[in-house]
Design a protein that fits this description.
The complex is a heterotrimer. Helix content of chain B is 77%, strand content 0%. Chain B has helices at residues 8-28, 35-43, 47-83, 95-109, 111-114, 118-138, 143-167, 173-181, 190-209, 211-217, 221-226, 231-253, 259-267, 275-299, 308-332. Chain C has a single domain (2-220), classed as P-loop containing nucleotide triphosphate hydrolases (Rossmann fold), CATH 3.40.50.300. Chain C is built from nine helices and twelve strands. The mean pLDDT of chain C is 92. The chains are: A alpha/beta, B mainly alpha, C alpha/beta.
């Protein structure tokens, strides 16, 4: 993989050439001035080289082309080093937990190669499945593109955070983010009442249900519930017939959230009278989809909502 | 008429009995489980869930399969009688595509959110618009012109559907419509039945009014006219009735094909080849066939839901090929 | 019963096909409508019945406007046997003949005893008793024509119009069909047949109507309508005429 292109130095580092040109200072004899100039130039060259080397290990213009890497990046790296995040993170419905003031000030990209090139990045973060034509093109043009596979478990999340920390030269901050997450996670777990986990039925469009071995299920389990898919005994995500959904009595329900608009055929499944009857008879929660889309600290938002629901259920 | 080997009303009674039997089986089969599982649900106190499952999911499904199958069967028989061609099918007059187009527009423009009746009504509207266009195009031309006009309309509707999907802001639109065009009665509710059934009944009534004329049409248009058949009235009743009925059916279930082709062909020898008698028989036969296909869809152990239209196509298309093979000598004459 | 057509005019694509034709048909006579190909005979017939649109002209039935009558009433008054021999579907001969009772039936159209008797009479008239149970599609040309004729007879209308009833038939069946038509006329019906065979026309018909280029050019007995001058000017042929057992015959002999 080709190295990053030579970069103009970021703000805060003075230009060595200005010093070498001799600007302000006491007058020196011409012979000594030449020697001083040569040594200053050599010093400047070495300094420039070492700074460039540092710039190569610590990217200064990072572009994220993926919603989940957006969040990890914003938590680990100073905003001044983020050249752009995706436009999705600026949408209210997609806001990561607690990062509104940061995301509001950052430029955005739409996953198009031209936009990204204009930003002149030294590191590009992308997801595995989205915008692959753009990422392939960018790689072909010599940019440094790092692919992050989607997180299937919370352990994957920790691994991704660490990996990102290495890439951006902030391993310590990455560990701090993980430690903070683990602490909050443990605090929430401690609040869970004892006993078998009841069923939480989250019915997506076209009766899309999560089974075991998914990040979603791990989040729900952490929140004190089993998913409907676990109760039915399958892995991964599936569209389930309504009859099958009706064979399990849930303790908590949720149906599809803002992504039901614009209207489409699949949203009609949510209007079925039997499903509406079941919803009317069951306590409901609304979990912003953003909290479960990414393996990132925002999952705590979802876990918190579920833990609260569990506590409320136990009180009843 | 001469006595066919099986008396006509005997045949109807037999088909009706078959429908009742299949309906009963349909109520006992489903992803939620058979009678044993349902009993278990009731025993553990989940009787409200069991009732929801059987009454609000399984029953509408059975009823819809019955009504849609009947509509498609009768429409197919009527169109074959009108066009005097055993290879005709409701698709030939472009009804299914135009009904699908109406439903697509209703769905993706959001009109269907405005009021629940909008979706089937837009489907009917699409079907009627194409029927009107068809009768305009065909004008006083013969049946070949009618068929060609139907093909042209189908193509136009397919193009417009692609346009609607292209413009839809929903990223899953294209995949959805592909599944919908495969046809399904899964997870429909009594709302769907209530909306579509009256229109399907209206369509059926219109077709039955044309039954006798179809008999006379066997002798050709001129003889039929001399016997007092009004060709314009017959055409309007058949094309209109088929459009309304199949339009309503397509609007709630998507595109289900081949019932209208296969059922009349199978039953024709049993009604003495009389087009008029074939209508009621095809209605019952179509209902039975579609219910059987829907039962098959539920008992076959495929992991992913098998779409109803796929099953009817898998049965119907080879049958259609065989039909052409058998009939090619006659077709060339 | 008298069917009278006056000033029938039909044109298509700017061409005149029938130009001011007058025609009458009364009960009890067998009339032949003859003329060269393209004279407009079939069109005139269809215009009479209302199957083809007329540009001008009036048709009355016993003085009453024919077009103003209801379709079933018209169908019961005038039966039509077109040239079309094709029967769709594998209907039996009996079922085909029963279709002739359509104008008399209503509602669901079940056959009444009166219908069944009419069908039997019609089949007997064409001597088709042994054909009844067979599908029409497997019958020979002559058999099929007889059955279709029986269908027209089953209407039991006082007037019968047929378009080339003996086309493509062998001599046996040609004679048979002509005999049936004459028998029908004797029984009281008014029968009009478009016909090409001059000999049979001369022999069987009571009256001939000769058409040429859309106009009626001659009308009368076979001797009057088919005089040598007429044959030369209209048909552009010369013929040998004679009589056998009191009936005339005309044999086209050479082109003139």
């Amino acid at each position: 993989m080709k190295q990053s292109r030579p970069q103009p130095p970021a703000s805060g580092v003075s230009s060595p050439s200005r010093h070498a040109a001799g600007g302000v200072g006491p007058r020196i004899p011409a012979r000594d001035a030449a020697r001083v100039s040569l040594m200053t130039a050599l010093f400047a060259a070495v300094a420039l080289l070492s700074l460039t080397a540092q710039a190569q290990t610590k990217p200064q213009r990072i572009v994220s082309m993926n919603l989940c890497t957006d969040e990890l990046l914003m938590r680990i790296v100073d905003p001044s080093r983020i050249a752009a995040i995706t436009y999705l993170s600026r949408q209210p419905v997609n806001a990561p937990l607690g990062l509104d003031d940061i995301s509001a000030k950052l430029p955005v990209n739409h996953g198009l190669a031209e936009e990204v090139i204009k930003l002149n990045p030294d590191l590009i973060l992308a997801g595995q499945f989205a915008a692959t034509t753009a990422t392939n093109l960018l790689r072909h043009l010599g940019y440094r593109v790092e692919i992050f596979p989607p997180e299937n478990t919370l352990e994957d999340m920790r691994a991704n955070i660490r990996h990102l920390g290495e890439l951006v030269g902030e391993p310590a901050r990455a560990e701090a983010v993980i430690t903070d997450f683990d602490a909050r996670f443990a605090a929430l777990e401690a609040q869970l009442p004892p006993g078998e986990k009841p069923v939480f039925a989250d019915v997506g469009v076209s009766n899309y249900i999560a089974g075991s071995n998914t990040l979603y299920t791990e989040i729900v389990n952490a929140g004190g519930y089993r998913t409907l898919g676990q109760a039915l005994g399958f892995e991964g995500f599936r569209n389930i017939p309504l009859e099958t959904i009706l064979t399990v009595r849930p303790a908590l329900m949720s149906t599809a959230t803002p992504w039901t608009s614009p209207p489409s055929l699949s949203t009609t499944s949510l209007g079925h009278p039997a499903l509406r009857r079941l919803m009317a008879a069951t306590p409901q929660v609304v979990i912003p989809e953003r909290y479960t889309t990414c393996g990132a600290p925002s999952v705590l938002g979802a876990i918190e909502i579920l833990v609260e629901a569990r506590k409320a259920g136990a009180r009843r | 008429m001469t006595r066919p080997t099986l008396p006509y009303f005997g045949l109807l009674a037999l088909l009706a009995l078959l429908c009742v039997a299949l309906a009963a089986v349909s109520m006992m089969v489903g992803p939620g489980g058979g009678p044993a599982e349902i009993m278990a649900m009731i025993a553990r106190g989940d009787d409200d869930l069991a009732w929801m499952m059987v009454g609000e999911v399984r029953f509408p499904r059975t009823l819809l399969a019955l009504c849609v199958g009947a509509t498609l069967g009768m429409a197919g028989a009527a169109l074959q009688g009108l066009l005097r061609n055993p290879l005709a099918d409701p698709g030939v007059v472009g009804v299914s595509s135009s009904a699908s187009l109406g439903a697509v527009i209703a769905l993706y423009s959001g009109i269907s959110m405005a009021f629940p009746l909008a979706l089937p009504l837009m489907g009917i509207a699409g079907a009627l618009a194409s029927a009107f266009l068809l009768l305009m195009l065909a004008g006083r031309g013969g049946m070949l012109t009618l068929v060609l006009a139907g093909v042209a309309i189908s193509s136009l509707c397919a193009a417009l559907m692609s346009l609607a999907l292209n413009m839809s802001p929903n990223p899953y639109a294209a995949a959805e419509i592909m599944f919908w065009l495969m046809g399904s009665v899964t997870d429909r509710s009594m709302d769907h039945v209530m909306l579509a059934a009256p229109l399907m009944a209206l369509g059926a009534m219109m077709l039955m009014l044309a039954a006798r004329s179809l008999n006379a049409l066997s002798l050709g248009e001129e003889t039929a006219a001399s016997l007092g058949v009004s060709l314009t009235r017959t055409r309007a009743l058949v094309v209109g009735g088929a459009s309304i009925g199949v339009g309503a059916a397509t609007a709630v279930c998507g595109g289900i094909g081949f019932i209208g082709l296969v059922v009349p062909h199978l039953l024709r020898p049993l009604v003495g080849h009389t087009p008029g008698r074939l209508l009621a028989a095809s209605a019952l036969g179509g209902a039975a066939l579609l219910m059987a296909a829907d039962i098959l869809v539920r008992i076959l152990p495929t992991g992913i839901e098998l779409k109803l239209g796929v099953v009817t196509a898998l049965v119907g298309a080879p049958f259609f090929l065989w039909l052409i093979f058998r009939a090619r000598a006659e077709l060339e004459s | 019963m008298k069917l009278e057509a006056s000033n029938i005019t039909v044109s298509a694509h700017g061409r005149s096909i029938v130009d001011g034709a007058n025609l009458a048909l009364v009960s009890g006579e067998l009339v032949g409508l003859i003329g060269p190909n393209g004279a407009g005979k079939s069109t005139l017939l269809r215009a009479l019945l209302g199957i083809t649109r007329r540009d001008a002209g009036r048709v009355t039935l016993d003085g009453a406007d024919f077009d103003a009558m209801s379709s079933p009433a018209r169908a019961r008054a005038v039966a039509f046997l077109p040239q079309e021999r094709r029967v769709e579907w594998r209907l039996t001969a009996h079922d085909v003949v029963m279709l002739g009772r359509y104008p008399h039936q209503a509602g669901l159209g079940s056959a009444t005893p009166a219908d069944r008797e009419a069908v039997q009479r019609a089949i007997a008239a064409v001597e088709g008793e042994d054909l009844t149970k067979r599908p029409v599609s497997v019958l020979s040309g002559g058999e099929r024509t007889r059955i279709l004729l029986a269908r027209a007879l089953a209407v039991e209308a006082p007037l019968l119009l047929t378009d080339e009833p003996i086309a493509a038939l062998d001599p046996y069946h040609q004679l048979h069909v002509m005999e049936i038509l004459r028998q029908r006329a004797r029984a009281g019906a008014g029968v009009l047949a478009v016909i090409h065979d001059l000999s049979l026309a001369a022999r069987f018909m009571d009256r001939l109507v000769l058409m040429d280029s859309g106009r009626i050019v001659a009308e009368g007995s076979p001797a009057e309508a088919l005089s040598p001058e007429r044959l030369a000017s209209v048909y552009r042929i010369s013929a040998v005429a004679g009589s056998n057992a009191g009936a005339p015959y005309i044999l086209p002999w050479s082109r003139s």
